[in-house]
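Hello support,

Our group uses your service weekly, and this is the first time we've seen a run hang past the timeout. The protein is 3-isopropylmalate dehydrogenase. I'm not sure whether the cause is the sequence or the server load. Input pasted verbatim:
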Amino acid sequence: MTKKILVLPGDGIGPEIVAEATKLLEVLRREHGLVAEFEEAPVGGAGYDAAGHPLPEDTLRLAKAADAVLLGAVGGPRYDTLDWELRPERGLLGLRSELNLFANLRPAILYPQLASASALKPEIVGGLDIMILRELTGGAYFGKPRGIRTRDDGVREGFNTIIYDEGEIERIVRSGFEIAMKRGRRLCSVDKANVLEVSQLWREVAIRVSEDFPDVELSHMYVDNAAMQLVRAPKQFDVIVTENMFGDILSDAAAMLTGSIGMLPSASLDADGKGMYEPIHGSAPDIAGQGVANPLATLLSVSMMLRYSLDEGALADRVDAAVSRVLDQGLRTPDIWTEGSSKVGTTAMGDAVVAALGE
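Update from on-call engineer: The timeout came from a worker crash unrelated to the input. Re-ran successfully.
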């Protein structure tokens, strides 16, 4: 059966890096047996420019009909003066909510070829392989009531609500256990149960769900300690599961352990395996159009898409191996360049990975 892939280039460097991903997909289809069709649509700032809204109705319709969505990035300073509901980021949040993409998978893997590019010593990060599982449709980012109001004394205050019910907690924690079963069988649930009632419920549910997974070692850690431990001894972790805002912060911190945020893909999945795939680095408007953006996180997002939504594990392995071969060749975009390696641009890096597919 032909799979439908919706491609959303978005803003900033999004079109540049997605172009390399589309090139990769075309070669996989033409030469390696991928049975898929692609369609492109605007989202984020591009959606606002095209239809007056960051998530145009046609884009949402195509996303709901697709088997998988590949996103570049959204956002840029030219949209900062728009009303909150029209900001590019609302398009991304809208997709997550409308598609019920509750599980965000963010691997933090240090390729041995990039050990010297990490901000930490090689002996601390060498061999790093962590999976951070972030709940994506609840918490402070979606909770209500929210807003900005003026008190009786004339002082303005902003307020947001962190809210999770037992069902929301159970499905993300259960996903964490299932992923841990396929890895090192260690799951660390990160919360702030010493301060927040919502975290106390989170911890209670995690302990209850753990009874269904006796082969997985469950541990708990406060989020502030988890941030410290990611820098102090990151290899102690196998799978981390946490709520939306904590996961947003911890996964970006983990990105720098790997040498560059430009190396990290992500997958956002629903209960049936349909997903949206994107690099975690954002739109990087300061380098947009310069041809220097690192496309590897996007190409590795394609690998995750092949593995989790398209049931093409062998092709995913092929893409992963191609990326590793290119790094072995010493090719580096500016964000991961070190003395002695060869500095290349976005297109040249994409071309190299495509060429390495057949090796």
